[in-house]
Recover the amino acids of this structure.
């Protein structure tokens, strides 16, 4: 049990940083859902594109949808920041 606790505490910052990067890369994935998804299965980033029409661009709703789609990434980064900072300072020499 002690070994598991020690290993988990040493690996947690790396897991936090890796999870943050994986989340950001998955969230920014735009080209594959644009090509492979249909109208009923679009992701948020490709759904924002629906505000662009032939004759007009609905700037207000598109900006609001963009800001709402950014919120989960910001919240995830804020909560993972503690793990990333502790991982960066774990190996430093104090004294």
């Amino acid at each position: 049990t002690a070994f598991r606790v020690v290993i988990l505490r040493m690996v947690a910052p790396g897991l936090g940083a890796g999870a943050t990067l994986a989340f950001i890369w998955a969230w920014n994935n735009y080209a594959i859902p644009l090509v492979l998804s249909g109208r009923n299965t679009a992701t948020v980033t490709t759904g924002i594109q629906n505000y662009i029409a032939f004759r007009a661009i609905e700037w207000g709703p598109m900006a609001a949808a963009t800001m709402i789609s950014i919120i989960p990434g910001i919240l995830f980064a804020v909560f993972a920041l503690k793990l990333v900072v502790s991982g960066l300072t774990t190996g430093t020499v104090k004294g």
Q: What stands out?
A: The chain has four helices and no strands.
